[in-house]
UniProtKB/TrEMBL annotation:
SUPFAM superfamilies: FAD-binding/transporter-associated domain-like. It comes from the Eukaryota. InterPro entries: BBE, FAD-bd_PCMH, FAD-bd_PCMH-like_sf, FAD-bd_PCMH_sub1, FAD-bd_PCMH_sub2, FAD-linked_Oxidoreductase, Oxid_FAD_bind_N. The keyword Oxidoreductase applies. The lineage of its organism: Eukaryota, Fungi, Dikarya, Basidiomycota, Agaricomycotina. This is FAD-binding PCMH-type domain-containing protein. Gene3D superfamilies: 3.30.465.10, 3.40.462.20, Uridine Diphospho-n-acetylenolpyruvylglucosamine Reductase, domain 2. GO terms for molecular function: FAD binding; oxidoreductase activity. It comes from Dentipellis fragilis. Residues 32-202 form the FAD-binding PCMH-type domain.
Length: 477
């Protein structure tokens, strides 16, 4: 039997004996790490087809890693082959600067760096370390989504390695079915090695910063009046040393907004006085994407995320979520770094695209919450590099049951928000794929687009080579 290391490719093949193997398994959450038989790091798109042929002919599972940020094990494999796109991370602007070409393993930080130098803005996810690949294939929502919609709605073309090894370009004219499917269908149709996205002129420095309040209920009035050029990120957290429930409000106000930052922020200062009120400006998307670096660096390494879409800030959803979060983080000290992060924004342009125009179905006006379960785990890295800065509760070993308890809590609060919103609005908005876990029903994630996606799965991946992620059953009828 031939060995995968004998394949003639330009990139690297790592096995457990290779010096860089452990580093290549690293993911944003410790829970996402699995021991692969091989990690292949392609340097050229043509490296990928022989690896796929090898894996499929040897019955090995194939996983693909973009930025390694999804809090599942979708980008990892136990005993299979991981195709790690990290070396394919080049970003180039077209001569007229209106389109950016992004290789499949780039992170949003790589993209913003290139756009920022030419005063162009690009609609993507807000944090620099989040992978373009995983987020774009499932939507990609950020500060600019109200004005320019999701990242996926700005895709003009892509280059995809298909399960049978063909490398194809897809756009509205070329392979239009594939183009429709990759805009919201996730990783189920191929490895996207190049994304071509529209860019926009940057209007100037955005207003940002933090307002911090002792924990009370946030009423969401802002949402009703927000324009597409303003957004609040509202975080429920228990920062040390007191670990009391706290509300952290991080505004983003575009330089292009009609109302002044003062007008927008005034209500937040009148209704309650913040204990911290620090407003500043960020010159570009790169700076904004680093805004949470300090808290990310100190955050426990066990992370699981779920998301919730809801039509408005209903009082019962806010009160019920608050009570559930306060109780959970009080009862489970190991997991008290768990947060709820509410996007208070105007969905604007997202709702201008029809639910069947792309594979991404959630187009009704909605708000969004990310529910992050974070809990401590024993880690040599943590002890050596950050122990001096951490409260003692963060550096002891987690209790084994915390994994289970936190996962169950995440599921229960996500279900609560979805069910309460359905009862209040009369409509189930479903589950957003970037924060799905894979245990939801496919109908909830893909909605009315599921039948077409199943047909296209049969066309583009009949043998289910892309078996990781939120899998779509092929329909051969
Ligand atoms: C702290 C944090 C904050 C976040 N905030 C946001 C946010 O504000 N907005 C938002 O939209 N999302 C957000 N996300 C969610 C994020 O979009 C998803 O986790 C996304 O999957 C990350 O992409 P990745 O490439 O890093 O993931 P990976 O873990 O590398 O991959 C996730 C899935 O996508 C597949 N994949 C990745 N790249 C490719 C490719 N090029 N071709 C084919 N398949 C590929 C993988 O195989 C895997 O199935 C956040 C995540 C985290 C951890």
């Amino acid at each position: 039997m031939s060995d995968i290391t004998s394949l003639k490719i330009q990139g690297k093949v790592l096995s457990p004996e290779s010096p860089d193997y452990q580093k290549a398994l690293h993911r944003n959450s410790d829970l996402s790490i699995l021991d692969a038989a091989y990690v292949v790091q392609p340097e050229a798109y043509t490296d990928i087809p022989p690896v796929l042929a090898y894996a499929t002919s040897h019955g090995l599972e194939v996983a693909v890693t973009g930025g390694g940020c999804h809090s599942s094990t979708w980008a990892s494999s136990k005993g299979g082959v991981v195709i790690d796109l990290g070396r394919l991370n080049k970003v180039t602007l077209s001569a007229d600067k209106k389109v950016v070409t992004i290789q499949g393993g780039a992170r949003w930080g790589d993209v913003y760096e290139v756009g920022g130098k030419e005063q162009r803005e690009i609609p993507g996810a807000p944090l620099w370390f989040v992978g373009v690949g995983g987020s774009l294939l499932s939507g990609a929502s950020g500060y600019l989504s109200g004005r320019y919609s999701l990242g996926i709605d700005n895709l003009v073309a892509a280059t995809v390695v298909l399960a049978d090894g063909r490398i194809v370009r897809t756009s509205a004219e070329d392979e239009p079915d594939l183009f429709w499917a990759i805009r919201g269908g996730g990783n189920q149709f191929g490895i996207v090695v190049e994304f071509e996205l529209r860019t926009y002129p940057a209007p100037g420095p955005a207003t940002t910063g933090t307002l911090i309040y002792p924990g009370t209920e946030f009423d969401g009035e802002f949402h009703e009046q927000a324009s597409v050029d303003e957004k609040l990120t509202v975080v429920w957290a228990r920062p040390g040393p007191h670990f009391k429930p706290t509300i952290i409000v991080a505004p983003w106000i575009s330089a292009g907004a009609e109302r002044s930052p003062h007008q927008i922020l005034e209500p937040l200062r009148i209704k309650a006085t913040p204990v911290v009120d620090k407003i500043t400006t960020a010159p570009d998307q790169t700076t904004l994407s680093h805004a949470s670096d300090a808290s990310q660096a100190r955050a426990p390494r066990r992370l699981q995320i779920r998301g919730g879409a809801f039509s408005k800030f209903w009082t019962d959803i806010m009160v019920g979520s608050w009570e559930r979060w306060v109780k959970f983080t009080e009862d489970n000290e190991d997991a008290r770094a768990s947060t709820l992060i509410w996007d208070v924004r105007n969905p604007g342009a997202i709702t201008k695209v029809g639910p069947t125009d792309t594979a991404y179905p959630i187009r009704k006006p909605h708000c969004f919450v990310a529910i992050q379960g974070r809990w401590v785990s024993f880690s040599i890295h943590l002890i050596e590099e950050t122990a001096d800065h951490l409260p003692p509760c963060m550096i002891r070993n987690t209790r084994p049951e915390t994994d289970e308890v936190t996962s169950a809590w995440l599921r229960s609060i996500a279900d609560f928000i979805r069910e309460a919103n359905t009862a209040n609005s009369g409509e189930d908005l479903g589950v957003i794929l970037t924060m799905a876990k894979g245990d939801e029903l496919p109908e909830a994630v893909f909605g009315q687009n599921l039948p077409r996606l199943r047909k296209l799965k049969a066309k583009y991946d009949p043998k289910n080579v892309w078996s990781k992620g939120f899998t779509i059953e092929p329909d051969f009828s």
